[in-house]
Amino acid sequence: MKIAFVFNERQSSSVDEAEFDTRETVGSIANALASGGHDVQLVPMTRDDKWISELRRLEPQLVFNTAEGYKGVGRESYGPVVFEQLGIPYVGPGPYVCFLTLDKFLTKRVVAQSEVPVVEGYFVTKRKDLEEAAKSIVFPAFVKPNYEGSSKGITQKSLCRTYLDLVNYGKECLTAFPEGIIIERFIPGKDVSIGYIAGVGRDGVLDPVEYEVVGASKAGEWIYDYDYKNFKDEQVKAVCPALIGDELTEKMKSYMKDCVDALGIVDIGRADFRVTPDGELFFMEFNALPSLQPGAGMFEATKRLGLSYEQTIQQILEAAISRMKLAGKSSRPSHKMNFRKPRVAVVYNLKRKKKNEEGFEQEAEFDSQTTIDALVGAVRSLGHETIPLEANKDIAEELQDQNINIVFNIAEGIASRAREAQVPAICDLLGIEHTGSDATSLSITLDKAISKRLVAAEGVLTPKSLLFARPPKRLKKELDLQYPLIVKPNYEGTSKGISRKSVVSNEEEFFDAVNRLYAEIPEPILVEEYIQGREFTIGVFGNSTLKVLGPLEIQFKETGDKYPVYSLEAKIQEEAEDNRFLKLVCPVLDLDKSVERQIHASAKKVFRVLGCRDVARVDFRLNQRNQVYFLEANPLPGLSPGFSDLAILADRLGWGYEKMIKTILDPAIQRWRASLKQRAQGGGDEREIVLPPVLTT
Asked: Is the pTM of this model over 0.85?
């Protein structure tokens, strides 16, 4: 069947695009649709009529629609209206249902007629009405926009405990969302969502899903606000089935069925409820265009039914095909679909030296057999044929002999300033796709001084520094650096060459440190101002759309060091998360939100400026004035389970090791499949989904 996939693609982090699909989600949906044997054509919705002309040109048999539209209270109806005018069948609800469910207040009135419990409240469009409602509402109260999704307009201030709080935030909310806001009694408890896919489970109703903040205290009210949903979603874990007991689960499923019937829902939908500690249920809203991002709560529910992400998307598609009795169910196009799994090589450098053994520090960046086995196991668990290969002088021949499609690269390289670029350069030469950054980016980021200059040029703060080709015999009087200073090798990672003696407070200590370091590691020496304050590391994933994981704080313990550092000795402790030098803290709950946003924004900017790809870890220090300073970026971060910072981040924030590895590997698979498409053009019979170009911000 020829399917047009119509969507809005998210190209920035602006509030206006909060409901749009990321590039990665678009790719996942498109490939899931094509995995069923369908000819899938991508049609990004535009503000002009070009997308409509494209639909006319394509003449699809069916539209798979996730487009949210652009403006107005009827924006979600825009797509379905066009499809109906063109006479093209489509997946999901019609214009009226889209319009109805975007209006939260009206939706509640409709489902209440079916005896679904809703919370009492007021719909307000004018400030004078706001003050009257504030006088009548029962406190605590809750304020939110009436016509928005993705928690837009919902902040920690939405929970109002006094008349003054409500009036002040209500005015703020009305200014931002003049179409109208809802003021309602606040329901203590937790958010629980429940999905619907026609033909799946019992009457299409799935198991309910609740959301919790990883590592958060159970005390107090947690609000699933805009920040959590759009900037800190890595800290939110979907739990399925929701921990509400069998009786409430059955009651919620019954209410969901009533909502589906009352609202005229077809194919797919999701309702949100509030569950009180006393076991009361309250309907909050209905989403007729729920998120289809991999990892969303709906897919946690279908996983319990034995359905993969791809199978779930196919079920949604089949629901529409069956409903409209379209020809083409389970159809197969005449051309060959290329969705075979790639043959993946995990390429590594093996750490053979043990701690305190001569030569150990030279292998400090290499990976243990335990790490290699864990990574190979994770890739195999994703369904890929996986071969471990050591990055030695025979690696190019091995890659060809083994007929490798994709290299999962963790090889640090050997004996070269550009050593981290060795494996990616070989892959490029052989035409083999690989995970992570390319050879250019890896060469740049291994040079701390160059990285700092590039990042500083883009407005990111970084400590003032000087680079010495060799230890100076004397310091010039015009040396424009303030003690304390930190002395470190310019081309090393894993804190090689960094110890408690690396921070110096005067000229005598400076000369001692640079001479000792150069004798140990004869390469240029970076000297920079030591930033006193908290230290954080951030994981960044993706490409056009970036996903930030963290921060994780390196919390130094009282060891008698006036200027603590994340030294090699601290990094190689067997108890990585809590030892005599430090404690790794994640999630970080006492960080000001504005500072956290600044760290996230700086991490994304660093990632893009340095040309990183797929994954990187970025380190920062926060000085005593809450200014964020970039220290360094590692686009080839350690992936040792329970030991490496990035793996600990993923575990602490609910991702788990396999999800982290999948997140790194998936973009490489997309690039590999796109290359197959390009090679097949001009007479080949293979077909593959290739995403259109995207603007980055």
From this structure: no
Our CA dihedral for 439, 441, 443, 449, rounded to 10 degrees, sits at: 180
Residues 295-309 as b or e (16 or more Cβ within 10 Å = b): bbbbbbbbeeeebeb
Nearest C-alpha neighbor of 349 from the set 374, 366, 370, 324: 366
Residue 451 CB-density burial (10 A; 0-12 exposed, 13-18 middle, 19+ buried): buried
CA 299 to chain centre: 16
DSSP 85-99: HHT--BSS--HHHHH
Integer Cα distance of 86 and 96 in angstroms: 17
Contact (Cβ atoms closer than 8 angstroms) between residue 78 and residue 67: yes
What pLDDT band is residue 687 in, cutting at 50, 70 and 90?
A: very low
What are the tokens at 102? 């975007």
Q: What is the distance between the alpha carbons of residues 3 and 41, in angstroms, rounded to a whole number?
A: 6
**How does residue 495 score in pLDDT terms, banded at 50, 70 and 90?**
low
| Residue of 121, 103, 221, 117 whose CA lies nearest to 166 | 121
Contact in structure between 428 and 671 (CB atoms under 8 Å): no
In angstroms, the CA 283 to CA 118 distance is 5
Q: What's the rounded Cα separation, in Å, for the pair 222 and 159?
A: 10
- Alpha-carbon distance 585 to 587, whole Å? 6
Give the burial string for 591-612 (b: 16+ CB within 10 Å, else e). beeebbebbbebbbbbbbbbeb
Report how far Cα 224 is from the mean position of its chain's Cα atoms.
17
Alpha helices in 431-471 (DSSP H): 439-446, 448-457
* CA end-to-end distance (rounded Å), the chain: 36
- CA–CA distance, 696 with 432 (Å, rounded to integer): 26
Radius of gyration of the chain (CA): 28
How much is the mean pLDDT over the chain? 88
- HEC letters along 613-639: CEEEEEEEEECCCCCEEEEEEECCCCC
